[in-house]
Design goal:
The complex is a heterotrimer of chains A (about 400), B (about 400) and C (about 290).
Chain A: H1 2-31, H2 37-61, H3 69-84, H4 87-93, H5 106-109, H6 113-143, H7 148-166, H8 172-175, E1 181-182, E2 192-193, E3 199-201, H9 206-223, H10 226-236, H11 238-243, H12 248-274, E4 276-277, H13 284-297, H14 302-317, E5 328-329, E6 332-333, H15 341-356, H16 367-379, H17 381-388
Antiparallel strand pairs in A: 1-4, 2-3, 5-6
Helix pairs in contact in A: 1-9, 2-9, 2-12, 2-13, 2-14, 3-6, 3-7, 3-12, 6-12, 10-12, 13-14
Chain B: H1 2-23, E1 40-47, H2 54-70, E2 73-76, E3 79-89, H3 97-106, E4 111-113, H4 118-131, E5 135-137, E6 152-154, H5 159-174, E7 178-184, H6 188-200, E8 204-210, H7 218-227, E9 231-233, H8 238-251, E10 257-259, H9 266-272, E11 279-283, H10 291-303, H11 305-310, H12 319-338, H13 343-349, E12 355-357, E13 360-362, E14 374-381, E15 386-394
Parallel strand pairs in B: 1-3, 1-4, 4-5, 5-6, 7-8, 7-9, 9-10, 10-11
Antiparallel strand pairs in B: 2-3, 11-14, 12-13, 14-15
Chain C: H1 2-32, H2 39-56, H3 59-82, H4 90-112, E1 117-118, E2 128-131, E3 134-137, H5 138-160, H6 162-172, H7 174-179, H8 184-209, E4 212-213, H9 219-232, H10 237-256, H11 263-277
Classes of the chains: A mainly alpha (about 400), B alpha/beta (about 400), C mainly alpha (about 290).
Chain lengths: ~400, ~400, ~290
Amino acid sequence: MLQEKKSKRGTWIALGCVAALLILVMVLENTMQPTSMLFTVLKKGAVYALVAASLNLLNGFTGLFSLGQAGFMLLGAYTYAILTIPSADRESVYYLYGGSAVNFSLPELFGGGTLGLILGVLAALILAGCVAAVVAWLIGLPVLRLKSDYLAIATLGFAEIIRAIFQWDALGPVTNGANALKNFPTFSSFNIENANGEVVFRLSTFVPFLLAAVCIGIMVLLINSTYGRAFKAIREDEVAAEAMGISLAKHKRMAFCISSFFAGVGGGMFAMFANQAQAKTFTTSMTYEILLIVVIGGIGSISGSCIASFLYVAASEWWLRFLDTETYIGAFKVPFLRTGFRMVVFSIIIMVVVLFFRRGLMGDRELGDVARSLGRRLSGKGKKKEAVK
Amino acid sequence: MKRVFALALTLVMVLSLAACGGSSDTPADDGGASESGDPVVRIGVFEPATGDSGPGGKQEMLGMQYANRETPTVDIGGTTYTVELVYADNGSTTDKAPTAAAELVSKDVSLVLGSYGSSVAMAGGPVFDEAGLAAIGVTCTNPQITAGNDYYFRICFLDNFQAQVLVNFAKDKFSAQKAYCLGELGNEYDQGLIAFFEQNFDGEVIKDSFPTNTSDFSTYLTKAVAEDVDVIFCPVSIAYATQIVKLAASMDLDIPLLGSDTLDSNMVLEAAQGSNVQLYVSTFYQEGGSPEFDDGIKAWLNEDSTAMTNNGGNDTIAAVTAMGYDAYYVALEALKAAGSTDPGAVKAALPGVTYDGVSGSIAFDEQGDAIRDTAYIKTADTANNAWALETVQTVE
Amino acid sequence: MQYGISILLSGISLGGQYALIAIGYTMVYGILRLINFAHGDVFMAAGLIMVYLSASLPIGAAVPLMILLTVLLGFVIERAAYKPLRSAPRMSVMISAIGVSYLLQNLATYITGGLPQMYPNLPVLSDQITIAGTSTKMVTVITPFLVVALVIALTQLINHTKIGMAMRAASRDFETAQLMGIKINNVISFTFVIGSLLAAVGSALYFTNYPSIVPLSGSLPGLRAFVAAVFGGIGSIPGAVVGAFLIGLSETVIKSSDWSVFSDAFTFALLIIILVVKPTGLFGEKSTDKV
């Protein structure tokens, strides 16, 4: 009884925090200079947070080691792009293939305008997730029987196969071959403009935050449900879980499909962030990047993945950039600084985290747990309670 | 304890995120007086310094750096400004390009030069478009870059033009009936050129694509030999081109290799050195086109060891370097015409800018593309390790 | 005919080079159950070391020094990045390997400035010869023989020496081996030394054929060699060699067909089929889970 009350209060606090964060983003975006690097980092961070959380659901909560996340992102990105490129632009985007084989655009089907845009983008993102989930289901039939490392390699292989298929010339009228898909609605399309085309209210950072928050929220709910407990049981011990009546095949497939669904949505959002979708982008190294985020944040901690993705993006794309340019302090030339040094420093930081902070930023705890224990520690009551225990 | 530490670390980082965000919008507004006391105008350089287009990007930057050394100031609206080049490495990949572009936007540059490589230009384009910042493409030849983007201009020719030039050349010189095309899988530049080549070529075309990071090209070249083709067309980036040419040299390949502007690099030339490879490339500039520029940049390259390394270790001038040089001056012209450092004014002034550069005269059409009707075809003089002008091709 | 021969030749030589890398993967996996993602990058680093050494030293001195330095690199990587994580879950070690691979690639980018480096011409290996009317490099012919010789030497080492016995014991049961007085850290270091040594030899052969080195040069051969190791049954040395030759041959054959776009995809498809049909690979041992 007490437990229930407490968790309900926790939910409300968490919801309040998320709402406050969203409002903060909206306010910042409309008060600060919109060209600031901060917003680029926030957008990319939000997208990566979603994908990292989806990978964490699989790796951290179910114990299935998959390296196919980039492949599912690719599916999502292409589905989203193919469904939302305006009909008028199709000719020029598919210029090598004399137009597209898909001749409708979801935002237009929904009547165009603001409402059409919102509904069309949402529908396209959901479909992007569905396509990824269906493919994941198909892939899962053979590969989910494999154990840890073998599963990792098989999923990595599938991601590469998917990439090759999308680059195949014969599918050009649908996938545009090697060429990028572009001109579809991006985050900036959600900025509210007045009649002269000037932006009056910016929502381009708010939208990815909202989408990511909703998706991650659904994942958190899932993790806290009976399904989530079954996933964790599988992670801890497959044999024991099976003995307790958990259907391994069913739950593994479910976790794999759900994770891929959100990776697909994340892929669609990545396309929105990058303003284009191109198969070449979704390589194994992208999967590794996301995996590193999960590890830095803590395997088995959704809030850790979110924090880590913002830190990761900010560090690699923004804070460390000064390391790439030669700098003089007075007449003294700072040594080592030249192109490429940023990534060297960055990879050393990653190694330090992996080696010395093995459990990542959060371990397998959530932000709420940390705050609670911190609060207890500060009030001094916690210690007594623990001692009693 | 560790948890507290982790939380504290997170807090510090989040706070500094906010602090950085807060501070980053201040620096440019004061105009940032330079050492000489002149106000500063910033020009963004959106080029790859790493990745598989890195070598080309570096050579293109050399042109800009040299031009910047030559003319470090510009008069805008009666005031003398010092020009500062601001670099952002787009890493030759489309996922790093938008952030690199955003980085330039946040540094308050007046306009942007770049990039080498079409994919990255396309990925960065919308960011510039949204920020209202004009970009001048230097050697990105894919038609899609300027199409549908009001803020992207370019000073080079386009791929469909280039492919046409090479097709004509293959027909005139080798009366080619059968061609073998080889490009990187998923690379927009390679595949676009090959598609245009195929459209224009009225003979048989065999196409192949190799995956990224391939280094085994022997199968492809043997296949071309076995198919008995008349020409091999390989519009690939420098890293692959050097390997293909080197392999062709060791195989003693007697089929002529046709390349696009990317192959016009002294690294490719060196790979062919001392062999019987017949290598022809279409390009923007032929050494000797402007003796004054040639001598000047050679003197600089020989004096500056870093620049020399970036140029591939010798002082052969790549066409992209000449293009980078011209792009810098076009940017200065645009700033002068705008009479202000405001990006909006620069963008408004750009369509009207004309400039006589070392690579020919530059003017923009309504799409923002340079009006060009000539391309140089060079051949590798493998005995002397130099490029020789083969012909100047014009397409109506 | 001539075309077929040249395809076959390059397939076999490619397979041999993959085999040398694949052995490194398979041995480390056999003992540590770790996919050493950094192995492909050690291979790339060996190439770069050779480039820089040969700039200042004669080839005769540069080659042994290159092998020595590569071995040292492999040893240091094991001690610095894997040893501290010995008791950690397997996934952490694998991620550490990904981190090392990332670090090596970025370091290579920094040092070379992103410019492709040309591998020096090695005497004998780079000489041109003609077989059945097909011109090729000496290295193509030497590779398969060298690989077979090295593999025989390696199996002798593993089957008939004390350290070999220790390695077999460690791969069978890590903890029991430790209890039996085997200095497990030495055994693991030795495994890495052998793996890096073979990678160094492999890099000399590989880059003689394909002389341009970029920071990512190691990733693709590394991945393929790894697939070969899994294909043959990871942990088994003969399996890795057979797998490598099969992968090398099928890759060149696919590339020469009309389906060259799918050369990578085919490699992986083959792998997945093998894994699904026979999850432990061609020669892998059957493992059972203990509750």
